[in-house]
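WARN  no MSA supplied for this record, continuing single-sequence
INFO  ligand: pyridoxal-5'-phosphate
INFO  echoing inputs
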Amino acid sequence: MIKETLREHLSGNAPNLFVENLNPYAGTLAERLIDACGATFETVFFSNSGSEAVEAALKTAILATGKKRVAHAEGAYHGTTLGALACMGRGLYRDDFNGVLADFPEVPFADAKALENALSKEDVAAFIVEPVQIEAGIRIAGDEYLQDARKLCDRFGALLIFDEVHTGMGRTGTLFGWQHSGVVPDIFTLAKSLGGGMVPIGAVLMAEGLWRRAYGNYLRCEIHNSTFGGNALACRAALKTLDVIGASGFLASVRERGEALYLRLTQALEGSRLLERVAWRGLLGGIKLKDVNHPWLQWENVGLEELRGRPISGVLVMERLARRNILVQVCAHDWSVIRVEPPLTVDPDACARFVDAMGEAVRWLGENA
Ligand SMILES: Cc1ncc(COP(=O)(O)O)c(C=O)c1O
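INFO  complex generated
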Protein backbone atom coordinates (compact mmCIF):
# COMPACT_ATOMS: atom_id res chain seq x y z
CA MET A 1 0.00 0.00 0.00
CA ILE A 2 2.80 2.38 0.89
CA LYS A 3 4.72 1.46 -2.26
CA GLU A 4 1.60 2.19 -4.31
CA THR A 5 1.27 5.62 -2.73
CA LEU A 6 4.93 6.36 -3.45
CA ARG A 7 4.62 5.20 -7.06
CA GLU A 8 1.53 7.35 -7.56
CA HIS A 9 3.30 10.34 -6.02
CA LEU A 10 6.40 9.91 -8.18
CA SER A 11 4.37 9.56 -11.35
CA GLY A 12 2.77 12.96 -10.70
CA ASN A 13 4.41 16.37 -10.80
CA ALA A 14 3.97 17.64 -7.25
CA PRO A 15 6.92 19.79 -6.18
CA ASN A 16 9.03 17.99 -3.61
CA LEU A 17 10.75 20.57 -1.45
CA PHE A 18 8.50 23.68 -1.45
CA VAL A 19 11.53 25.79 -0.53
CA GLU A 20 10.64 28.45 2.09
CA ASN A 21 6.94 27.61 1.80
CA LEU A 22 4.77 25.29 3.80
CA ASN A 23 4.69 21.96 2.07
CA PRO A 24 0.97 21.08 2.10
CA TYR A 25 1.73 17.39 2.72
CA ALA A 26 3.88 18.33 5.72
CA GLY A 27 1.09 20.56 6.98
CA THR A 28 -1.47 17.76 6.68
CA LEU A 29 0.89 15.25 8.29
CA ALA A 30 1.61 17.61 11.20
CA GLU A 31 -2.11 18.08 11.72
CA ARG A 32 -2.80 14.34 11.59
CA LEU A 33 -0.03 13.59 14.10
CA ILE A 34 -1.19 16.27 16.49
CA ASP A 35 -4.81 15.11 16.23
CA ALA A 36 -3.70 11.55 16.98
CA CYS A 37 -2.15 12.68 20.28
CA GLY A 38 -5.48 13.71 21.78
CA ALA A 39 -3.43 16.14 23.88
CA THR A 40 -2.05 19.61 23.56
CA PHE A 41 0.75 19.59 21.05
CA GLU A 42 1.24 22.54 18.75
CA THR A 43 4.31 22.30 16.53
CA VAL A 44 5.85 19.52 14.47
CA PHE A 45 9.37 19.75 13.06
CA PHE A 46 10.27 17.19 10.38
CA SER A 47 13.72 15.67 9.98
CA ASN A 48 15.25 12.80 8.02
CA SER A 49 16.21 10.43 10.84
CA GLY A 50 15.72 9.62 14.48
CA SER A 51 19.01 11.15 15.54
CA GLU A 52 18.08 14.41 13.86
CA ALA A 53 14.69 14.37 15.58
CA VAL A 54 16.49 13.97 18.92
CA GLU A 55 18.83 16.87 18.04
CA ALA A 56 15.82 19.07 17.30
CA ALA A 57 14.21 18.07 20.60
CA LEU A 58 17.38 18.82 22.60
CA LYS A 59 18.05 22.15 20.91
CA THR A 60 14.47 23.31 21.33
CA ALA A 61 14.46 22.35 25.01
CA ILE A 62 17.76 24.17 25.63
CA LEU A 63 16.63 27.36 23.89
CA ALA A 64 13.08 27.32 25.25
CA THR A 65 14.22 26.96 28.88
CA GLY A 66 17.48 28.89 28.69
CA LYS A 67 19.17 26.00 30.54
CA LYS A 68 22.07 24.05 29.09
CA ARG A 69 21.99 20.52 30.49
CA VAL A 70 19.86 17.53 29.52
CA ALA A 71 19.38 14.63 31.93
CA HIS A 72 19.21 11.17 30.39
CA ALA A 73 18.86 7.60 31.56
CA GLU A 74 21.58 5.01 31.93
CA GLY A 75 21.45 2.49 29.07
CA ALA A 76 19.69 4.93 26.74
CA TYR A 77 20.01 4.88 22.96
CA HIS A 78 19.14 8.17 21.30
CA GLY A 79 21.20 8.10 18.10
CA THR A 80 24.72 8.65 16.87
CA THR A 81 24.96 12.41 16.26
CA LEU A 82 26.91 14.38 18.85
CA GLY A 83 23.93 15.80 20.77
CA ALA A 84 22.15 12.45 20.84
CA LEU A 85 25.40 10.72 21.82
CA ALA A 86 25.72 13.07 24.81
CA CYS A 87 22.51 11.40 26.05
CA MET A 88 23.57 7.86 25.14
CA GLY A 89 24.28 5.15 27.70
CA ARG A 90 27.97 4.67 28.50
CA GLY A 91 29.95 2.21 26.41
CA LEU A 92 31.07 1.49 22.88
CA TYR A 93 28.88 3.98 21.05
CA ARG A 94 29.91 7.05 22.98
CA ASP A 95 33.10 6.45 24.93
CA ASP A 96 35.52 7.46 22.13
CA PHE A 97 33.83 10.87 22.09
CA ASN A 98 34.02 11.61 25.80
CA GLY A 99 35.61 15.02 26.15
CA VAL A 100 33.92 16.21 22.96
CA LEU A 101 30.39 15.51 24.16
CA ALA A 102 28.40 17.86 26.36
CA ASP A 103 28.65 16.89 30.01
CA PHE A 104 25.00 16.00 30.61
CA PRO A 105 23.85 14.25 33.82
CA GLU A 106 23.10 10.53 33.56
CA VAL A 107 20.56 8.98 35.96
CA PRO A 108 19.81 5.30 36.61
CA PHE A 109 16.78 4.13 34.63
CA ALA A 110 13.48 3.86 36.53
CA ASP A 111 14.87 5.61 39.62
CA ALA A 112 12.73 8.63 40.49
CA LYS A 113 14.85 9.57 43.50
CA ALA A 114 17.99 9.83 41.36
CA LEU A 115 16.06 11.92 38.84
CA GLU A 116 14.93 14.23 41.63
CA ASN A 117 18.55 14.73 42.67
CA ALA A 118 19.62 15.47 39.11
CA LEU A 119 16.84 18.00 38.53
CA SER A 120 16.89 19.66 41.92
CA LYS A 121 19.59 22.21 41.03
CA GLU A 122 17.11 23.60 38.51
CA ASP A 123 19.83 23.86 35.84
CA VAL A 124 18.45 21.07 33.68
CA ALA A 125 16.54 21.95 30.49
CA ALA A 126 14.97 18.53 30.01
CA PHE A 127 14.91 14.87 30.91
CA ILE A 128 14.95 12.60 27.87
CA VAL A 129 13.85 8.97 28.19
CA GLU A 130 12.52 6.11 26.07
CA PRO A 131 9.17 4.70 27.31
CA VAL A 132 10.73 1.31 26.55
CA GLN A 133 14.53 1.17 26.48
CA ILE A 134 15.24 -1.14 23.58
CA GLU A 135 19.02 -1.28 23.31
CA ALA A 136 19.37 -1.54 27.09
CA GLY A 137 17.54 -4.88 26.89
CA ILE A 138 13.79 -4.18 26.42
CA ARG A 139 13.35 -2.40 29.74
CA ILE A 140 9.85 -1.00 30.16
CA ALA A 141 9.42 2.25 32.08
CA GLY A 142 6.63 1.67 34.62
CA ASP A 143 3.65 4.05 34.67
CA GLU A 144 4.52 5.20 38.17
CA TYR A 145 8.06 6.12 37.14
CA LEU A 146 6.81 8.12 34.17
CA GLN A 147 4.24 9.87 36.37
CA ASP A 148 6.98 10.74 38.86
CA ALA A 149 9.21 11.99 36.03
CA ARG A 150 6.36 14.23 34.82
CA LYS A 151 5.85 15.69 38.32
CA LEU A 152 9.57 16.19 38.91
CA CYS A 153 10.07 17.95 35.58
CA ASP A 154 7.16 20.28 36.37
CA ARG A 155 8.49 20.95 39.86
CA PHE A 156 12.00 21.82 38.74
CA GLY A 157 11.19 23.64 35.49
CA ALA A 158 12.54 20.97 33.14
CA LEU A 159 10.84 19.67 30.02
CA LEU A 160 9.98 15.99 29.65
CA ILE A 161 11.09 14.47 26.34
CA PHE A 162 10.08 10.97 25.28
CA ASP A 163 12.19 9.44 22.56
CA GLU A 164 9.65 7.44 20.59
CA VAL A 165 11.81 6.85 17.53
CA HIS A 166 11.50 3.12 18.15
CA THR A 167 8.37 2.81 20.30
CA GLY A 168 6.24 5.16 18.22
CA MET A 169 3.92 4.31 15.31
CA GLY A 170 2.15 1.32 16.78
CA ARG A 171 5.12 -0.85 17.83
CA THR A 172 3.90 -1.14 21.43
CA GLY A 173 0.22 -1.55 20.53
CA THR A 174 -0.74 2.11 20.89
CA LEU A 175 0.12 4.70 18.25
CA PHE A 176 2.63 6.34 20.59
CA GLY A 177 4.26 4.48 23.48
CA TRP A 178 3.37 7.20 26.00
CA GLN A 179 -0.31 6.53 25.43
CA HIS A 180 -0.03 3.40 27.63
CA SER A 181 0.79 5.44 30.71
CA GLY A 182 -1.23 8.52 29.83
CA VAL A 183 1.78 10.62 30.87
CA VAL A 184 2.00 13.39 28.30
CA PRO A 185 5.52 14.64 27.51
CA ASP A 186 6.34 18.20 26.47
CA ILE A 187 8.23 16.95 23.44
CA PHE A 188 8.43 13.60 21.70
CA THR A 189 10.30 12.21 18.74
CA LEU A 190 9.28 9.81 15.99
CA ALA A 191 11.18 8.26 13.06
CA LYS A 192 11.82 4.66 11.87
CA SER A 193 8.34 3.34 10.94
CA LEU A 194 6.94 6.84 10.45
CA GLY A 195 8.00 6.43 6.80
CA GLY A 196 6.44 2.99 6.59
CA GLY A 197 9.90 1.42 6.56
CA MET A 198 10.39 2.81 3.03
CA VAL A 199 11.37 6.45 3.23
CA PRO A 200 13.51 8.24 5.83
CA ILE A 201 11.55 10.71 7.92
CA GLY A 202 11.66 11.83 11.54
CA ALA A 203 9.44 14.19 13.49
CA VAL A 204 9.42 16.08 16.77
CA LEU A 205 6.10 17.06 18.33
CA MET A 206 6.15 19.90 20.81
CA ALA A 207 3.79 21.45 23.32
CA GLU A 208 2.34 24.88 22.81
CA GLY A 209 4.75 27.78 22.85
CA LEU A 210 8.01 25.82 22.91
CA TRP A 211 9.01 26.31 19.27
CA ARG A 212 8.10 29.99 19.44
CA ARG A 213 10.10 30.49 22.62
CA ALA A 214 13.10 28.83 21.00
CA TYR A 215 12.98 30.20 17.46
CA GLY A 216 10.07 32.59 17.30
CA ASN A 217 11.18 35.70 15.41
CA TYR A 218 12.26 36.56 11.87
CA LEU A 219 15.93 36.50 12.73
CA ARG A 220 15.92 33.18 14.53
CA CYS A 221 13.29 31.22 12.64
CA GLU A 222 15.85 29.54 10.37
CA ILE A 223 18.48 28.59 12.92
CA HIS A 224 17.16 25.08 13.13
CA ASN A 225 16.18 23.73 9.73
CA SER A 226 16.57 20.82 7.37
CA THR A 227 16.68 20.87 3.56
CA PHE A 228 14.90 17.57 3.06
CA GLY A 229 12.97 17.47 6.36
CA GLY A 230 9.28 17.20 5.54
CA ASN A 231 9.78 16.65 1.81
CA ALA A 232 6.64 15.69 -0.04
CA LEU A 233 7.57 12.08 -0.78
CA ALA A 234 8.45 11.29 2.84
CA CYS A 235 5.25 12.95 4.05
CA ARG A 236 3.14 10.93 1.61
CA ALA A 237 4.71 7.73 2.98
CA ALA A 238 4.00 8.85 6.55
CA LEU A 239 0.41 9.83 5.76
CA LYS A 240 -0.22 6.39 4.25
CA THR A 241 1.45 4.74 7.24
CA LEU A 242 -0.90 6.62 9.54
CA ASP A 243 -3.85 5.38 7.46
CA VAL A 244 -2.69 1.78 7.82
CA ILE A 245 -1.97 1.96 11.56
CA GLY A 246 -5.09 4.01 12.22
CA ALA A 247 -7.39 1.54 10.43
CA SER A 248 -10.09 0.14 12.66
CA GLY A 249 -8.82 -2.77 14.77
CA PHE A 250 -5.17 -2.54 13.63
CA LEU A 251 -3.66 -1.54 16.98
CA ALA A 252 -5.92 -3.91 18.92
CA SER A 253 -4.64 -6.68 16.72
CA VAL A 254 -1.00 -5.66 17.37
CA ARG A 255 -1.73 -5.97 21.09
CA GLU A 256 -3.50 -9.32 20.70
CA ARG A 257 -0.85 -10.84 18.44
CA GLY A 258 1.90 -9.53 20.71
CA GLU A 259 0.26 -11.09 23.76
CA ALA A 260 -0.18 -14.42 21.97
CA LEU A 261 3.37 -14.44 20.57
CA TYR A 262 5.26 -13.63 23.76
CA LEU A 263 3.09 -15.86 25.97
CA ARG A 264 3.76 -18.80 23.64
CA LEU A 265 7.41 -17.90 23.57
CA THR A 266 7.52 -17.82 27.37
CA GLN A 267 5.88 -21.26 27.49
CA ALA A 268 8.29 -22.67 24.91
CA LEU A 269 11.34 -21.43 26.82
CA GLU A 270 10.14 -22.18 30.34
CA GLY A 271 12.25 -24.89 31.83
CA SER A 272 15.41 -23.87 29.97
CA ARG A 273 18.25 -23.27 32.39
CA LEU A 274 19.30 -20.36 30.18
CA LEU A 275 16.09 -18.35 30.34
CA GLU A 276 16.14 -15.28 32.56
CA ARG A 277 13.04 -13.39 31.39
CA VAL A 278 10.78 -12.51 28.48
CA ALA A 279 9.52 -8.91 28.47
CA TRP A 280 7.24 -7.24 25.96
CA ARG A 281 4.79 -4.53 25.12
CA GLY A 282 2.72 -4.87 21.97
CA LEU A 283 5.01 -6.36 19.32
CA LEU A 284 8.20 -5.15 20.96
CA GLY A 285 9.79 -7.86 23.05
CA GLY A 286 13.02 -9.35 24.27
CA ILE A 287 14.34 -12.61 25.67
CA LYS A 288 17.07 -12.31 28.27
CA LEU A 289 19.35 -15.35 28.45
CA LYS A 290 21.86 -16.36 31.08
CA ASP A 291 25.30 -16.78 29.61
CA VAL A 292 26.78 -20.16 28.87
CA ASN A 293 29.88 -20.99 30.80
CA HIS A 294 31.71 -23.37 28.48
CA PRO A 295 35.48 -22.87 28.04
CA TRP A 296 35.22 -23.33 24.26
CA LEU A 297 32.40 -20.87 23.95
CA GLN A 298 34.42 -17.76 24.75
CA TRP A 299 34.94 -15.09 22.11
CA GLU A 300 38.71 -15.11 22.51
CA ASN A 301 38.77 -18.85 21.78
CA VAL A 302 37.16 -18.33 18.39
CA GLY A 303 39.56 -15.55 17.39
CA LEU A 304 37.30 -12.63 18.30
CA GLU A 305 39.32 -11.08 21.15
CA GLU A 306 37.66 -7.70 20.64
CA LEU A 307 34.40 -9.19 21.89
CA ARG A 308 35.94 -10.58 25.09
CA GLY A 309 33.58 -10.28 28.04
CA ARG A 310 30.44 -9.86 25.96
CA PRO A 311 27.62 -12.36 26.48
CA ILE A 312 27.64 -15.08 23.83
CA SER A 313 24.37 -17.02 24.33
CA GLY A 314 22.20 -14.57 22.40
CA VAL A 315 24.55 -14.48 19.44
CA LEU A 316 24.71 -18.29 19.26
CA VAL A 317 20.91 -18.44 19.24
CA MET A 318 20.85 -15.71 16.60
CA GLU A 319 23.16 -17.72 14.38
CA ARG A 320 21.11 -20.88 14.79
CA LEU A 321 17.91 -19.05 13.86
CA ALA A 322 19.59 -17.54 10.80
CA ARG A 323 20.00 -21.09 9.44
CA ARG A 324 16.20 -21.22 9.35
CA ASN A 325 16.05 -17.82 7.64
CA ILE A 326 14.84 -16.09 10.79
CA LEU A 327 16.57 -12.83 11.60
CA VAL A 328 16.83 -11.60 15.17
CA GLN A 329 19.31 -9.27 16.80
CA VAL A 330 20.75 -8.79 20.27
CA CYS A 331 20.28 -5.42 21.98
CA ALA A 332 23.15 -3.00 21.36
CA HIS A 333 23.89 -2.27 25.02
CA ASP A 334 23.00 -5.71 26.38
CA TRP A 335 23.93 -8.69 24.25
CA SER A 336 22.26 -11.08 26.66
CA VAL A 337 18.88 -9.91 25.36
CA ILE A 338 17.54 -11.07 21.98
CA ARG A 339 15.06 -8.58 20.64
CA VAL A 340 11.97 -9.94 18.97
CA GLU A 341 10.26 -7.37 16.78
CA PRO A 342 8.25 -8.89 13.95
CA PRO A 343 6.47 -6.68 11.42
CA LEU A 344 3.24 -5.22 12.82
CA THR A 345 1.43 -7.23 10.15
CA VAL A 346 2.98 -10.58 11.16
CA ASP A 347 0.57 -13.51 10.87
CA PRO A 348 0.00 -16.22 13.50
CA ASP A 349 1.62 -18.94 11.35
CA ALA A 350 4.87 -17.00 11.14
CA CYS A 351 4.71 -16.46 14.91
CA ALA A 352 4.22 -20.20 15.47
CA ARG A 353 7.24 -21.02 13.24
CA PHE A 354 9.30 -18.48 15.14
CA VAL A 355 8.32 -19.86 18.56
CA ASP A 356 9.19 -23.34 17.38
CA ALA A 357 12.60 -22.27 16.05
CA MET A 358 13.44 -20.22 19.13
CA GLY A 359 12.41 -23.08 21.44
CA GLU A 360 14.66 -25.46 19.48
CA ALA A 361 17.63 -23.06 19.43
CA VAL A 362 17.54 -22.31 23.16
CA ARG A 363 17.05 -26.02 23.96
CA TRP A 364 20.02 -26.93 21.75
CA LEU A 365 22.22 -24.34 23.46
CA GLY A 366 21.12 -25.44 26.94
CA GLU A 367 21.93 -29.05 26.13
CA ASN A 368 25.25 -28.46 24.37
CA ALA A 369 26.90 -25.61 26.15
C1 LIG B 1 15.14 5.23 20.63
C2 LIG B 1 15.97 5.66 19.46
N1 LIG B 1 16.27 6.96 19.31
C3 LIG B 1 16.99 7.41 18.26
C4 LIG B 1 17.47 6.53 17.32
C5 LIG B 1 18.28 7.05 16.16
O1 LIG B 1 17.55 6.95 14.98
P1 LIG B 1 18.29 6.96 13.56
O2 LIG B 1 19.05 5.69 13.44
O3 LIG B 1 17.15 7.06 12.56
O4 LIG B 1 19.15 8.17 13.53
C6 LIG B 1 17.21 5.17 17.44
C7 LIG B 1 17.74 4.22 16.45
O5 LIG B 1 17.83 3.03 16.64
C8 LIG B 1 16.43 4.71 18.53
O6 LIG B 1 16.14 3.42 18.71
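The chain has two domains: 2-246, 250-368.
INFO  checksum written, moving to next record
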